Amino acid sequence: MISKIKILKEIDKVLEAEKRLLPLLNRHISSSLFYSDLNKEDREKIVDFFQSQVVRQSKHIDVLSEIRDELNEGGEGVY
User: How many secondary structure helices (H) and strands (E) does the chain include?
Assistant: First the structure.
């Protein structure tokens, strides 16, 4: 078994990592595309793809936050 406190700590670690990752990834992609030799159409495809990934990542953060909130509100339970 794993304690509720340990689960909450691990979820918090993952949430913090994901929140730091998004801006870093966006800056990196923007810089790379700015200096690339790709044509406008290819750059737009790449930007669209990464924007969809940002949306997925945001949804993942929301779900993890909901799980953390449910665990906080629950009793001791068995995990």
Answer: 2, 0
Give the mean pLDDT of 11-19: 93
- Is the model's pTM score more than 0.70? yes
Q: Report pLDDT digits (tens) over 60-76.
A: 999 999 999 998 887 76
Domain ranges of the chain: 4-73
Coil vs helix vs strand at 1: coil
Cα first-last separation, the chain: 6
Note the Cα 12 to chain centre separation in Å. 12
Q: Nearest CA to 11 among 50, 55, 54, 66?
A: 66
Place of tokens 């918090």: 12
Q: Which residues contact 38 (CB under 8 A, 6 or more apart)?
A: 46
